[in-house]
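User: 2OG-Fe(II) oxygenase superfamily protein, Hyaloscypha bicolor E:
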Amino acid sequence: MATTTATEEAYVLKVDSFFGPVSRNVNRAAARDPRPGEISVIDVSRIFSDKLSDRQAVADKVRKACKDIGFFYVTNHGIPDSVAKAAVDSTLEFFRQPLEIKQEVHFDHEIEGYTGRNNEQINKTEPIDTYEKFKLQYRPSMDPTSKLPGYPTGGVYQEFPWEKTATVPSFQPAMIDSFTSRLLLGRRLLRICALALDLPETYFDEMVAQPFAGLALNYFPTPKNIPTGTDGEESIEHVGLGSHTDFGLITLLWQDHPGLQVLSPGGDWIKVNPIPDTLICNLGDLMALITNGRFISDVHRARNVSKDERVSMPFFLGVGGKVKIEIVPTCVDPEAEKAPWEGMLAVDWTRKRQAACKVENTGKGAFQV
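Assistant: Predicted structure for 2OG-Fe(II) oxygenase superfamily protein:
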């Protein structure tokens, strides 16, 4: 259950962060629809324009969304519908298989591969998460811009054992296409974020040349016996994916059914329902950190509130391991005697952030450092 009661109308939600537990007052009212303009729908077609003025116009809209709530929809993003359809069809086919087949793609380190339901608790003050997932990490072989065969600091990438997913022949090509398309879009959007921060447009380019990035497939089975409150809304004890913030710079999410909810500054859960032909972009803790809090990494959760199985596919884009991260020049407080935190390598940030939210990491993932 999500922590101490503040009043009969609200409760205190604790979320782990790099700086320690953060508390938010949350209204007990049912999740509501967004108010006009609360979660922007941004046409990003002009990010592909050769004109800086076109790209800057998108950046101006992105800036407001990043400062207000850290979530926005992107439309006209350039990823073909066929890529999303192939990914979701293959995802459903994979997760509908018998458990013993899916477990063939389970690895002890849990950085990649399949993990069954009731095996993770992303928020320690809430019940265990009830979804299944599959995770895939970045490799140069999935990056059409990469010219390097391995990790530039001396590690060696290992290819994913795709033969273990051969029971779904379409799975490998669909996942690689989905990963690659969102990697390229994510890099474009980071250029827009740079413009929104009054930085050189290419400021983030080297940081994500070989990024810490991953694609997750989240599968929420058809809900059964969901506990509800007196207003008919699911109770706070029911969790699909618990309340949390993301680690990296940005996340690009595709979802097929309602379920995503983001916490407003006033403590309301806001429904972020799917809109056809859009992706949802939200900021992660690393973006909030390097912008000195100017851009927001907001708390969100996911619940299967439909009567059907639900799929969401978030793509997480962060900074490569040996890149130094620090507050960007345009967000340094000129009146502060010293920075609120010291610069560090991205790999150290990731390890500390994982430790802060008690994520167990017993393996080395896609590459060895």
